[in-house]
Write the structure tokens for this entry.
Amino acid sequence: MATGNGPVRIFLRPQPKSHPFTERECMIDEKMKVGRSVAKSKPSSNNLVFDCKVLSRNHAVIWATDGQVFVRDTKSSNGTFINNARLSATGEESVDTLLKDGDIIQFGVDVMENQRQKVTHGCIIALFVNPSARAPSPPPELASGIRLSEITELAQLLMDCRHRQEVVDNKLSSVQFDLEQTASSFHHECKGFIEEEQMLARIDTLENQLQFYTLDQGSSDVQRLLKQLEEEKTKTSTKAKESLQSMLQEKMEILKKYSTLQLDYDHSEQECDRWKAMHDELQAERRQLAQALDERDRELHKQCAELKTLRHQHSVLEQEHGPMKQQHQEMLEKLDHASVELVNLAEQKKYATDRLCSLQEQMELLHDRNISLSALYDASSEQVRLRDIEIEELRTQLRHVQQSPSPLSRPSEEHAICGVEEVIGRDPVTVVAVSKMRESPHSRFTSLLHSQ
């Protein structure tokens, strides 16, 4: 039976209580037989054939459908177990059972030696692993520290106890049957002994009657009858003695066997009581572990629900994180651009600082020069003011000279011109103008005034 999604890879890993075998890795794409190795079918790491005597040749079949793996017991003698639960009775075909990842699958049961309580032929116990159906994060260890392997070993121990209890029950049934047979044989022996005693009493009665008849009658017929009866008596007595002796010997043997069986029965009862006490303790411990496992299962379901909620929140945050991530990228690009601009601005700042220092030095020089120029300007301004005053006085004198037509005033005009030359002659710009004024005093003086 092929799967809808292709072959499924499974693993069977041996457990501590199992008959030794190598780990099996199989690709299930059709029905695969589980059975004991024969001449044509040998064990391999990629099949489900085991060198184990407690398995049947066609013990079970395993196949996959839509990624799920199923098992069916095919009328095996010792049965197939999933997590210590038998799938079907002996010689009956089971229903199709789903195998889950982490299940403990067992093929057959251990065969034990009656007297030594030792396993002579072990069964196949394996951990079923289906990676395709494995949960996202299965817990390898319960919160209380109880490992799944410990629970599996405890379940295996309980199964061994149950099997040993069945062996003890079988032994007790055998002892009880032997006791019943012994009691029946003893009853038959006692009945035969009573019948023998009755027969001997009958013989004594016949002897007494014969003696009586012998006294009354002495014929040959009676003598012949007596002789015949005597022979029959001898034969019967001999046969009865032999039968009694054999019955007594059988009785002694039966009593000896009974005593041996009684001792075995007492020992079996003690062993059974011990195993029952151990079974009760293991049952109590199993119930406690089952309660703890139920609590851990509830916690696990709660944590799974919380994990589902956290995953949903994570998906929502991822959806919200997309635009924020894009904005963050844009901000990073802007930050890089701003860093470049900041570097450029730092260089410009450094250049501007150097330039500012140079300008400050120039400003200091200009300030010093300005102070000098200010002092020189103040001095020049004072001189100009004094010259303006002198020029104004000379203009006043010149007007008086111009108003007087007498030639006698010529020396005065000459004197005024000389005064002007004395006042303004010290200026290199007006030296040429003063030299031209000497040609015509009147015109020279007028032009000099206009030049000033």
Notes: The helical segments are 148-216, 220-403, 410-424, 431-437, 441-451. Confidence is low (pLDDT under 50) at residues 136-144, 436-442. The CA atoms of residues 224 and 437 lie 230 Å apart.
